[in-house]
# Entry
Amino acid sequence: FRIPAIPVVIRGYCKYKQWYQRRVRDSFIEASYTGELENINKANFRDVKKMSHVFDVSWLSERCAIYFEELVAALTEESEYEEVFFVVEEARFVLEDLKQRAFLKLVIEKMNLMTVQRNEFMKKYMVGFSEFPKDCTVLDL
# Structure
C-alpha cells in the first residue's frame, strides 16, 4: 500500500510540530513508498507508535503491537527494573496520549503473573508519588 502524496504532508507536519525524531520521520516517509520499516526498537518505539496512530497506518500499528507484545512476553521475575519501567511507561503513554488501553491491559496481565517482580517494581516506581492530588481517589491501572 503506497501513497505518494503523504510524505510531503508528513514532512511539513513533522517539521512544524517537531514531534518526531528526524531519523524516525525519514524512515516513516521511506516506508510509505516501500511498505517496509527499519527495525522498531526502544529508542524509536514511541515516535513510531505515535506516527502510526496520527497518520492511521494500520500495518505500522500492527508492527508496533507485535513489538510491544514481544517486550512484555520477555519479562520475567528476573527482569531488570528498567525493562519493566519501559513497558509500563509506554503503556501509560499510549493510554494517556493515544487513548488506547490494549497495551496497558497486556502489561497488567503480565504483571499479575509476576508477583515478586510486580511488588518490587511498584516499590521503586511509586517513590516519586509521595503526594497525590486531593481529588485523586482511584489510580486507574
